[in-house]
Specification:
By secondary structure, the chain is mostly beta strands. It contains two helices and 16 strands. Among the domains are: 114-233, Immunoglobulin-like (Sandwich), CATH 2.60.40; 235-336, Immunoglobulins (Immunoglobulin-like).
Amino acid sequence: MEEARVRLSARAGSTPTDRPFSLRHMGRAGAATGGMRRRCGVLLLLVALLAGCAAPPPPATPAVSPLPGPTVTADRSPMPPVSATPAPFTIATPAIILEPPETTPNPSPTQPKVGLPPEHLAILEPGPGSQVSSPIHVVGWGGPSWQQQVHIRLLGEDGKVVAQRITYLQAIPEVPGRFVADLGFDIPLVAEAARLEVSTYDLLDNRLDHLTTVNLVLLSAGAPLIYPALQGAEELAIFVPRENGVLQGGVGVVRGAGWLASGGPLTIEVLNRQGSVVGSATATLSTEAIGKLGTFEAQVPYKIELQQYGRVVVYETDSAIPGMVHYSSVRVFLKP
């Protein structure tokens, strides 16, 4: 009875603090709390789903493509004022393509493209410009020559012979070979300009066949200074007429190529079988530069009464030291 009164009074408006504590009340409160937690969890899940749907998509990664080349676009904006100091070049500065220049006429003469034969006679030691003391050690190559003989002369500043001798080719007869000789000299001065001259002679008639020279400085005291020399191309080569060719009609056409050691001109001569001059002419190279390859041509009138063997010779002279600088020849058959 008493418990029923208490329940009625609670329903009538009494406060919860006046209610008696029981296990029944405790179970109801726990159930109510658990239901509220489940409702809050569902609510939070709904909010998270809505937030995820409303979020913007992540930005797409742009595809990597090669850098485009420089393009020319029309810029209608006003040109900036030209600066006195140009901007420095950087890696971003576009390349400037220059067109190749057009070929312009060359006023200099075209060098002839001719092939020269090997040198017929060469002085290999001493070389040009060497300063030599007595005796001079001479080494060379050449031939063939009459009885294998090689004539060596040393000319002073005035063209007079200072020393001379004969040596021999170190080869079998009628075959080119090496020659070696020592040439002594005596001069009154401490030093003197000179020219060393070497020559060979024809196998059949013992006429001068070839001559080559080299300029030296003679020393009566002091240490010598020897420069080497190389055997190269023939300095004065005769192309027409050929060896054992024929000249007829009283006029011989002579063609060749080479270079000059002095100012020129070249002297061309026709010799009879006695070695006498029966015709002569002068010729100049196609180039006037000293040491430059050029060609020459001349018509040489000659006069003979009987047909015979002779020679066509081409040589260069020098006025600094009187005498021949180079001498070339070919054996020919002459007809009136």
